[in-house]
């Protein structure tokens, strides 16, 4: 059986930030499960940068079925965790089951990849205090309030945490995460 990686997400997650790591990690030989508040078909979104807009735009993206509900996640079954961005982390960070899952990964020092708004979840659990992390640039005050150092970078590695700003950083972000996985949780 292949090593398993968990992706925590929900409705309004950024499509690219779910599918890119999902497919890249499958390609690497890992089994990947997507967990959500309930086991249902999720509606992802597409965030894009349009000239003349002060912020990104949001359009409906792909749909995809969640493999399991948060309450059914046993963190011991997984070697690593991925936290995509989009708007989903804004509400997922307050879910006690998400907090339970993330705390278990952090306590076991398992590899964790987060991108864009994903750090809102680890910030909420206190897991980024004293660490360096990238995030969507608008989250710099949130990162500081959570006791972490904001880094405006495409693949920031701090121990077992690999972070990036947004989907344009995918190649560097996943390259760094896969390198870490090969060291800490290789496919056997």
UniProtKB/TrEMBL annotation:
Name the domain of life: Bacteria
Similarity comment: family membership: Belongs to the peptidase C56 family.
Q: Which organism is it from?
A: Kitasatospora saccharophila
Domain named DJ-1/PfpI: which ranges? 4-179
Protein name per the record: DJ-1/PfpI family protein
InterPro entries according to UniProt: C56_PfpI-like (IPR006286), Class_I_gatase-like (IPR029062), DJ-1/PfpI (IPR002818)
SUPFAM superfamilies noted in UniProt: Class I glutamine amidotransferase-like (SSF52317)
Alphabetized PROSITE patterns for the sequence: PEPTIDASE_C56_PFPI
